[in-house]
Design brief:
CATH topology: Rossmann fold
Shape: globular
Oligomer: single chain
Helix content: 25-40%
Strand order of the largest sheet: 5-4-3-6-8-7
Number of domains: 1
CATH architecture: 3-Layer(aba) Sandwich
Bound molecules: iron/sulfur cluster
CATH superfamily: HUPs
Amino acid sequence: MSPDSEPSKTLSVEESAGAALAAQKAMGLDKEGIPLVGGARVADPPLEPTPEFLAELQRESEALENETPQAILKWAVDRYAPKFTMATAFGPEGMTIIHMLAEIAPETPIFNLETGYQFEETMQLRERVRERYGVTVEYKYPKMSVEEFEKENGGPVYLTDPNRCCFERKLRVLHEAARGWHAWASAIRRDQSEDRAKAPIVGWDKKFQLVKISPLANWTKQQVWSLIMKEGIPYNPLHDRGYPSIGCQPCTRSVMAGEDERAGRWSGFQKTECGLHN
Ligand code: SF4
């Protein structure tokens, strides 16, 4: 299927939500997607979002509001390593953070959700990161291969129910991958979407029970690209072909001039996020 192909058949919002909830229950998550063990929410090791801890995070976030991304990352490493990690889809913001971490703390574990549907160009970027920084981004895989998943579901799930497909091939994997950490870096920028506009520099990620640090929250797209060009940071060549935001190949199309930078994601569906950041 080409990146520009339009999905043909959709489930209703209710059907889609019901299927996602059933899948969450089946894997031992509550309705907010938080792991349950014996009916209790867990994090390993537990990091309790007590009112005092949340207030502390808010204070730290406000104190870091005008700091550089590098200073924010340095703070995150000092405070949370070796329980500090990063998930990346190799977008320009993620590449910027990888570049900064390679200077500040190259031992920081970084992983990618390898859904089996990523662009070849994205996979190649992982190799370029290894060559440039000596950093191996670890792939985290869903339990089922693409073939097994599509066979079990009678075809590609992204065509009919991208929410469930993202849940099965990204969120489910991410929940597993998030266990055992205290904090992670996020590459979101506040000006990317309404959903992201209120992201704090440091906040509690309720869904994954981790401290979420967004060093680029205050940066603009232009600042990100200026640094990429200045430092020669590797980036996905699809960005030069009209793809400002890149996810899985079947759910990403190029955008036209004037379109929102995330308009090419899940085009044809009322979906703008994979569920990782909202
Ligand atoms: S982006 Fe598309 S192919 Fe990738 S996990 Fe989500 S729905 Fe599936």
